[in-house]
Amino acid sequence: MPLRRGSALVTPSSPRAWLRVAIPVLKVAVALGLVIWIARRVDFAEGWAAVRSLPVTTISVSIALLLLQALLSAWRWCLLTDMIGQRLKMIGAMKLFMESLFYNQALPSPIPGDAARIFGAINYGLTIKEATLGVVMDRILTLFGLAVVALIGLIIMRAFYGHAFPIPYLAELTALGVAGTVASAVVFSWRRRLFIRFLPEKLHALSDALATFLSHRRTMGIFLLTLVIHGVSVVTLEILVRGLGLPLDWGQAAAAFPPVLLIAMVPISVGGWGLREGGMIISLAVFGIGTTDAATLSVVFGLLQLVVGLAGGVFVLSRPHSGKIKAL
């Protein structure tokens, strides 16, 4: 039975409906395929022995760092909303950010997590425009900051250790992306009207928000905060390295881990699973770390992220709109 939405008919077999089902299924398939492919090359007995040897202190400190990362991310979100309009209160921002972590870990799409933040921010007094722009700006800044951190890691790997990252042209493509973004931001700040002419009317509000961000006195501070947020992931991984007894120092960690985190952000998997493990194996092989050790490190890191994300489920269960978000 076709459903009428406005003047258009939406049937269960419409391309949009198929895409909403096919994309998550494809992501799950990619994640499972990569995990199975990697699992066939891993010594499970050796990996499990390494996990069992992890000190409780290492696990506790790693979880604390991931919670600190969530706190810093929520703070940055507050600062961004303050630039756009009303400032979101820190307590509310932290609750909503933990909710989004839960959805991002439990579901094969980041959309419900972003929707949780938008709907929640509206309940805390922001307009829908302010809430949406705040989340979009936060996403853009997260991706750009990670690209910058990854580029720094790739430069360290090549300049200080004499190795190129095993994935061809990753350094060049990352550098091109960072340089292109910076150049676009400079031109946008200088000749914004040229951009507006080619932008749909729906994106004019985002254009205003970007202009406000680029000209704000806190811009550099927020960008540095973004680098710190990503740096916390590197520190957490190095602490796990020490706990597992792997021969990787801090300089090598700064070179090896950021590109892996960038690879895990490619939206073809669920929560980066499979992509992160494959990237970790490739990256750490440069420094003589074996497949089993690299995969074990990545899985432990992913599981700790999952623990922190599932902790956000406590806030989800108490929110009246959670059912609507799950349906997205």
Automatic annotation (TrEMBL):
<keyword id="KW-0472">Membrane</keyword>
<feature type="transmembrane region" description="Helical">
    <location>
        <begin position="295"/>
        <end position="318"/>
    </location>
</feature>
<feature type="transmembrane region" description="Helical">
    <location>
        <begin position="253"/>
        <end position="275"/>
    </location>
</feature>
<feature type="transmembrane region" description="Helical">
    <location>
        <begin position="140"/>
        <end position="161"/>
    </location>
</feature>
<keyword id="KW-1003">Cell membrane</keyword>
<keyword id="KW-0812">Transmembrane</keyword>
<dbReference type="Pfam" id="PF03706">
    <property type="entry name" value="LPG_synthase_TM"/>
</dbReference>
<feature type="transmembrane region" description="Helical">
    <location>
        <begin position="21"/>
        <end position="39"/>
    </location>
</feature>
<feature type="transmembrane region" description="Helical">
    <location>
        <begin position="167"/>
        <end position="190"/>
    </location>
</feature>
<feature type="transmembrane region" description="Helical">
    <location>
        <begin position="222"/>
        <end position="241"/>
    </location>
</feature>
<protein>
    <submittedName>
        <fullName>Flippase-like domain-containing protein</fullName>
    </submittedName>
</protein>
<feature type="transmembrane region" description="Helical">
    <location>
        <begin position="59"/>
        <end position="80"/>
    </location>
</feature>
<dbReference type="InterPro" id="IPR022791">
    <property type="entry name" value="L-PG_synthase/AglD"/>
</dbReference>
<keyword id="KW-1133">Transmembrane helix</keyword>
